[in-house]
Amino acid sequence: MPANIQKKQLFVASCLALLVTSLSFGIRAGILGRLGKEFNLDAQQLGTIAATAFWGFPLAIVVGGLIVDAIGMKKLLIGAFVFHLAGILLTVFATGYWSLFISTLFVGIANGTVEAACNPLVATIHSDNKTTKLNHFHLWFPGGIVIGTLLVFFLDKAGIGWQVQVGLMVIPTLIYGFLFSKLEFPVTERVSSGVSSAEMYKSLLNPLFLLMIILMFGTAITELFTGQWIDVLLKNVTDNAILLLTIETGVMVIGRAFAGPVVHKFSPQGVLLISAILAAVGLYLLGHTSGNMLFAGAIIFGMGVCYFWPTMLGFVSENLPRTGAVGINFMGAAGMFAVSLYMIFMGGYYDRLLVAKLPAGADLPTYTGAGATTEMANALMEAKKAAGPEIINATLIIPIILSVAFAGLFIYMRSRKEIHSKSFSNSIV
User: Longest C-alpha distance within the chain, in Å?
Assistant: First the structure.
């Protein structure tokens, strides 16, 4: 790698950019219910707004993945800075559904562009230790959510409005934009290794890569849907629903910080299998318990989803290196696209559950409107208390399926390793 490439500074700037991405996630999760009340939005509209960030993400990460080798990572990240700044300011001055929709789309595009450039950047500057360093990089996603949710919690207590909470994201945005504008970037690993574009695109048809794309649907939904909606789903089950997200993501930060020895001991595929099992147990507890047991569920769930995203990317980068930046970015796009569709579907399903649990003939807008009586408000609260855990229980099936799939992947990778070892031994003899 050229001597003018400052690996440490590039990594720090990448972490700051991802911090803004995660702050947007954590703060939005903390204020989602408030936005609904202030702008008179139902759960399906809130689900669509939240999902918009996940539409913008795959759009940006796919386009970014296709052009990053041609235009370079630096230009992509300057673009991310512009979209982040615009999205944050538009959110602060939002006036209703469509302004929130557009501003959230801009933030989603910025978030996807950050990953489109930073994932291959981290894999390039740490080509000898990809999975571990991708985990270290991605610890700033849950790290930012912890910071964001704590900001929401304490600023709410201080009576400071959501506009100020969102506006605070401008500070790290300006810092990472400045840093990236001053630093020199390497070419991507695929370009430096001489793998042609034709070889890269051909590698995307590898059956193992296609399987990982499908599994990414499930890992992303399990982690991100639950995190984004936990305050809405469990708000009427516990007084500290947003703290459940804080605890869960706090566990993720610690886990990703110690990813090196964990990945080394269990292998990426072993880590994914253990993660799926723990995620299933955690979701079960979140959907079937109350009181302090919810916090136990959040801890176990955090341990489960902790390694999902970066280890999926690391697995592809290590075992399918010819897929290059496009392979890593297609994985991220697949995950976010799946989450966006799932959020819209579950937003509508949640509204239908509420109607089913309200008195016969009840009209949801009437019960959520300003003219709702105390009796209506109490009935709505009880309906939400029952509907939230049902959404979590419906999602539980996904990590159960993932557990079976990752068990198969673990066996396959171990058998492939044994075959390669025997071939190597025979060649020596």
Answer: 84
